[in-house]
Fold each of these.
Amino acid sequence: SKRVITFGTFDVFHVGHINILERAKSQGDYLIVGVSSDKLNFEKKGRYPVYSQSQRMKILSALSCVDEVFVEESLEKKPDYIQEYNANVLVMGDDWSGKFDTMKAFCDVVYLPRTPSISTTEIIEVVKNL
Ligand code: C2G
């Protein structure tokens, strides 16, 4: 069986997230999701997520296309996670195109097109302005 791994924050879960997870799953049989920790998110984006990491993990675990979730503590640990979870393919949205090509030493790397015109940042702005 083919094991797929993907990573992300998945904050304020939306249809762009489900689209990439379903397409990631269809690259194989078993989907593992590394969920960025609150701390990693603060380091990456300078703010904490709206939903805590335990809430984000609970939402992801409840999806039928997701088989396993774990906390992603560091972007640099990708090789460790890929090996620990025996992943055959790494899937990321194309906003990360080329960024994880060094992982080709460990598994296949696939970048899928993002769902246009939806993002957590945009949802936050819309809600702010209500
Ligand atoms: N995504 C998408 N379409 C959107 C929005 C997001 O396909 N409209 C995808 C992204 O490309 C990514 C996944 O959904 O593959 C999760 O997106 P984010 O939560 O924004 O993830 P990010 O903070 O970029 O974290 O180690 C990698 C990082 O942890 C990725």
Amino acid sequence: MSLLEIDGVESYYGQSHILRDVSMRVEEGEICALLGRNGAGKTTTLRSIAGARPPEVREGTVTYKGRDITDMETEDISVLGISHVPEERRVFGNLTVEENLHLADVVQNRSNTVGRDLQFEHEGQSIEQILEDFPRLAERQNQLAGTLSGGEQQMLAIARALKQSTDLLMLDEPYEGLAPQIIETVEGAIERIREEGTTVLLVEQNAVAAMKIADRCYVVDQGGVVFEGTADELREDDETRERYLGV
Ligand code: ATP
């Protein structure tokens, strides 16, 4: 059994039929990349898994640890150990960097009281570890998050997700708007969290960067899966890369 199984999912925004027969597997302990051009359906896939509405999943199933989560509320899904970092950077602008990081604990504690049979297998990272990984945030611990640059806010949003204990971390375009050097910092942090046992589903437009750390990749186009294979297989598949990823 895979950690996450998506079978024949069909998702809609109102009348628009976006995902068509999407089936995917995410294996425990891997970094799985979901790649594709603008508008291919990557974000819609993550939202369909995370229970974020819209879109509406009208057909198919999403199964996590053998449990059908297709129609579950997003809060309940997060309590099961799936953490979703959306594309839009969600930091609390009128709180400091440090307070934003501590907020992860508050959210976690709330989850613990809601989740009756809650049992995370993987601990989140400590604030010390996170600040070591992101020295830029360490320097700005007492700065209001709203005054951080876009890239720094992105780092903070990712750092907060790493802080929570989670078994499956889903990141939507974590490299977007980040300078190459900072992309490397984020890559390092993602690899470290995987080494600690968290499974990662990474949505990226930057296919080259994503293939570097991914074990397996899916490519979507026009709401359907057009490639499934290892990162090495995708690297060797010039046709798929050129046709669907433009690299
Ligand atoms: P990007 O890399 O640009 O974020 P993506 O692969 O994540 O692209 P999606 O955001 O999943 O793409 O969008 C897939 C399709 O669904 C697009 O055609 C988009 O216009 C459409 N879509 C997305 N959100 C909505 C919405 N709220 N209402 C209607 N259509 C939507």
Amino acid sequence: MNADGRTRLNRTPEWSALAGHREDVGEVQLRELFAADPARGAGYTLQVGDLHIDYSKHLVTDETLRLLRELAAARDVFGLRDAMFRGEKINITEGRAVLHTALRAPAGAVVEVDGENVVPAVHAVLDRMADFAERVRSGEWAGHTGRRIRNVVNIGIGGSDLGPAMAYEVLRPYTDRELTVRFVSNVDGADLHEATRDLDPAETLFIVASKTFTTIETITNATSARSWLLDGLGGDEKAVARHFVALSTNSEKVTEFGIDTANMFEFWDWVGGRYSFDSAIGLSLMIAIGADRFREMLDGFRIVDDHFRTAPAEANAPLLLGLLGVWYGNFFDAQSHAVLPYSHYLSKFTAYLQQLDMESNGKSVDREGRPVEWQTGPVVWGTPGTNGQHAYYQLIHQGTKLVPADFIGFAEPVDELGDTLKAQHDLLMANFFAQTQALAFGKTPEEVRAEGVPEELVAHKTFRGNHPTTTILARALTPSVLGQLIALYEHKVFVQGAIWDIDSFDQWGVELGKVLAKRVEPALTEGADVPGLDASTQALVAKYRELRGR
Ligand code: F6P
């Protein structure tokens, strides 16, 4: 029993009903489900904004979906959703509201945190960002020597890097191609070196992105970038003001670093790092694509927010996708979830989702701090599909693991490609459709034999099939569609966290490594004795020092 009187997840009748149903359906076969219901292909679909979502190739029946929705109702997923949208402090371990949805609320909306409407502040920052972005794009905001800014380097890590870095790739066709935009995250000096080695400091703007402004990787890189700039511009400290801006919630630390808060774009503690990309953290993207396109993207987020908030359970896409993940993770023991975009522009999309999903739902205690007795978030992985087909798809098709997967594709190639390259799009999409077909329906031994395959190879060439996939198809990959896709996954992750009764909005698991790194560093540099260093790490540190000639 929970403190709030609710039964623990795995002791609820709805959970038992699903476990019983799993036994009943046993090794349910997609071939049989489709044979029994010719309308399934068109019927098991949803339209959300521009996203056509096909979930027909899942190991579910109407009964499964009904039981999953009953579980969601019993866990009051929609109640928690409403509390989130209302600004209640549902991030319990940090005592914070979870209001990334307010970042894309329309100007007239009212969303209160501690009795204060936060929407006017959101729009004030957006307007400042837009003004700044347009000044950089037009050349009005020049560097210290009067030269036009031609390079923008975002320095940040995790949520202060992955979102803008991903979106910059996604929306490249919408970017100002005259601008060079790069992203530095790794504390490995090679990252900053490679990002700046061919740039002219006089033409380079650094955006230091850090919610806390205490993250060691970001502050170290930003300090080195400052030296690089000053070395290149003759050491005049005044140059910093024209070449550094900050994105943060922490004005004190920004000032301490030496960036004027006039050059700081603010966000708030009710925006989680991994949910922050549509806040000021998106400034680099806004400079690249312009304020209007950025606002189109926010409109896309809002389409899915409104859908999630208002669509009934039977037609609610984030709810459905979240529940399908629960079905496989908790009742089929699936350990991972693949996201396989059939678009080169989405090459960093899965990496972005890894933080969104795994930092949110990689938890093993419930909201009251008790060990969970059920599986929580999956390992999320994947790269653009056609490349994956020639690498790891073998394991998905014929390995021993169940890997539910999302396939994301677009009807139209981007215009900029020109006729020859656009003509390749049908081939790309033929692969997209063929893969989900092969995964779902496989190839029986009879079909293999009918092709004249010698008997000793039949087993090797048989595809078991029955691998579940969701297909997400849109006309084109626009800024709005990107916003829609991200919001869809944000809310899917929310649904799963609500079902699993975990706090999806903290990330204590990343703390220990950070603390230990600070303790270990003096051992590497000075050979200092670090109390409590275990024998294995001690030996490794000694080896490291030997290899470095220390
Ligand atoms: O270490 C994890 C983390 O706290 C993420 O949650 C966050 O996105 C990232 O570090 C960067 O934090 P910040 O924006 O405060 O530099």
